[in-house]
Amino acid sequence: QIFNQHNAEAPNLEQAFHRMAQMEPNLDHDVSWFLLPSYWAKMVVALISFLCFANSYDGDFVFDDSEAIINNKDLRAETPLGDLWYHDFWGSKLSSNTSHKSYRPLTVLTFRINYLFAGGFYPVGFHVINIILHCTISVLMVDVFSILLGGLQFSNKGRRLNLAPKSSLLAALLFAVHPVHTECVAGIVGRADLLCALFFLLSFLGYCKAFRENKEGHTFSVFWVLVSVVLGAIAMLCKEQGITILGLNAVFDALVINKINLLELIRKLLYKDKALENAGLLRKGLLFRITLLMCGGAGILYIRWRIMGTGPPAFTEVDNPASFADSLFVRAINYNYYYSLNAWLLLCPWWLCFDWSMGCIPLIKSVSDWRIIALAALWFCLIGLICQALCSEDSHKRRILTLGLGFLIIPFLPASNLFFRVGFVVAERVIYLPSIGYCILFTYGFSLLSKQAKKKKILAVAVLGILLINVMRCALRSSQWRSEEQLFRSALSVCPLNAKVHYNVGKNLADKGNQSAAIKYYREAVRLNPKYVHAMNNLGNILKERNELHEAEELLSLAVQIQPDFAAAWMNLGIVQNSLRRFEEAEQSYWTAIKHRKKYPDCYYNLGRLYADLNRHIDALNAWRNATVLKPEHSLAWNNMIILLDNTGNLAQAEAVGREALELIPNDHSLMFSLANVLGKSQKYKESEALFLKAIKANPNAASYHGNLAVLYHRWGNLDLAKKHYEVSLKLDPMAPGTKENYNLLRRKLEQLQKKGG
């Protein structure tokens, strides 16, 4: 497939090229498809890929975006850039036992740049970058598929020739509009896959450039091989799958550049054939290039291993139940079933789900399970393709099938559970790169059908129909990714057995204030997964707020029994026990929560409330002080300290705490209100008035703010202003405690003054 190897005996390079082009079967000859100039082909692919996902541009942050972006401190300017190299994708230290070990610092860096340019967490900019990345990748696929399907050949001027313009356009369109890519494009976290794919393809194209004949007549360029390795390393720093491009480059070199017949090579290796050097393995440069790729890959993996540490990622059984099965048979059967599901998503991407864990796919535990048929079908197809790729007498067919299978299987290996446990069952995002192999095989299959078909136009119309259906499916799926409510509800019909789906629907409803509906979904999540502690915790919280304390206590007690280090459940259990007036148990629960999460300001705040109820004022103040040390913007803890000191007559101390709090949180109207009350009691009327007015400006509909300002004016002797604010307070809240009595006292006083004046 490569012509530019230096041959001193060739008198005319152009003639030699034409002879080679004629000998090589042309895939386009059998493909009934549109023929467009390269520039227009790329424009069409870019436009169609944009149309597929354009409606996701103004979507929200959804699902994993919250943890990877909104709650990720690595995006903020105050976090040193150097920390990105020692943290995982979610902002946790790689050395932490809870880290998922997903090392993607370059992806996080792009999130950080997005955040800085947008001036905050505005999702539009994040979504637009994802759409642009997918369009760019789809355009690059035109060049990549032209090489994979048509071979790598250069003109005598060193320009790469596209020998399969129709096939490469079809394959690129198939890739651009595949609905399984929606998660990567419409979900912001999917940028890891997009960036990885971008540098993955650039590495491949860079490796191909190494074989363009240079002025010195060398058959390959070491520089471009090294550039390919560097680009592969960058791809891996965006997502782990990126490292697999080095293996694919080696496969491409062997099959396309050196035209090695794998079956023939295996035979010669087995029989120790003396003609082994003629098989292509020892052909000049191949071993050297493969050595460069292997050394580069090994070096990259070693550096990553040193940074990441030797500990495996921490996953739970609900994330990947098959990997926790005791039986090797059960693990193997289920892994293979997962592979068949991934293959089905490529073939028929209609049933898509944001999460496939937590019972969505029940384990296969015996050979009598009908789903074994899926495994058999998968391996029947794979073995058939592998046999054709190895044994076919048609070298063109062998090359395309082997490359198709290589691009389908090799990028999927990191997600296969073969080398290490992964934290998911099926994930649509991990087949973004393997879909390249699917598109190669589909296009080749279409060319074979076109060759046999008598009515080729009907076949072309059928493929156009598939593309159109995929475009509509992409648009629909993108709209579902625009908000969490749509995304979570779309999963109910696909994975009704998935407890996490019901949990997320319930959480979304609870966040919107629909507690009754949320309870229903939380209960279903617990029914589907009786060990789902997060669902128990959230359900317990809602029941606590509805004063259904005994059931809330049962759920929270069960949650901490199942997961003893679940700090949030311990704290919530303490709140329930406090409400049930079982103070000793509540105190013990709070301290257990703090034991498991030492930096837990909310727990210290609730512990302070417990101590305040028990009149243990010093302990309460200490607990609230701990909360503000851990979280300086903890407004409730500051407020409670001011109020407790005020109520116990420590006005000077209350004033000092109030001023300290307002320095840290200058725009908090509740702190202004509390400090204004203290200053009023200390007869610092002018300063108190200013704070009351500032608080009212920030929250004009708070009846208590107007009522207490009226009391201040009443004490100060500004009776008309006092009357005005009493009336505003009563208008906002006619039942405001004490306000009506104070207002009546003021009216009587004003009447007395009028009589005296009369």
Write a concise keyword list for the protein shown above.
mainly alpha; disordered N terminus; 33 helices; 758 residues; single chain
Outline of the structure:
Belongs to the TMTC family. This protein is mainly α.
What's the topology here?
Blueprint: H1 13-23, H2 38-53, H3 65-70, H4 105-118, H5 123-150, H6 165-176, H7 182-186, H8 191-209, H9 222-238, H10 244-257, H11 262-270, H12 286-308, H13 328-347, H14 372-391, H15 395-409, H16 435-452, H17 456-480, H18 484-494, H19 499-511, H20 515-528, H21 533-545, H22 549-562, H23 567-579, H24 583-596, H25 601-613, H26 617-630, H27 635-647, H28 651-664, H29 669-681, H30 685-698, H31 703-716, H32 719-732, H33 739-757
Helix pairs in contact: 2-5, 2-6, 2-17, 5-6, 5-8, 6-16, 8-9, 8-10, 9-12, 10-12, 10-15, 13-14, 14-15, 15-16, 18-19, 19-20, 20-21, 21-22, 21-23, 22-23, 23-24, 24-25, 25-26, 25-27, 26-27, 27-28, 27-29, 28-29, 29-30, 30-31, 31-32, 32-33
Question: Could you explain the architecture of this structure?
Answer:
By secondary structure, the protein is mainly α. Among the domains are: 37-308, no CATH class; 321-454, no CATH class. It is built from 33 helices and no strands. Helix 21 (533-545) packs antiparallel against helix 22 (549-562) and helix 30 packs antiparallel against helix 31. The N and C termini lie far apart (114 Å). The model is unreliable at 1-23 (pLDDT under 50).
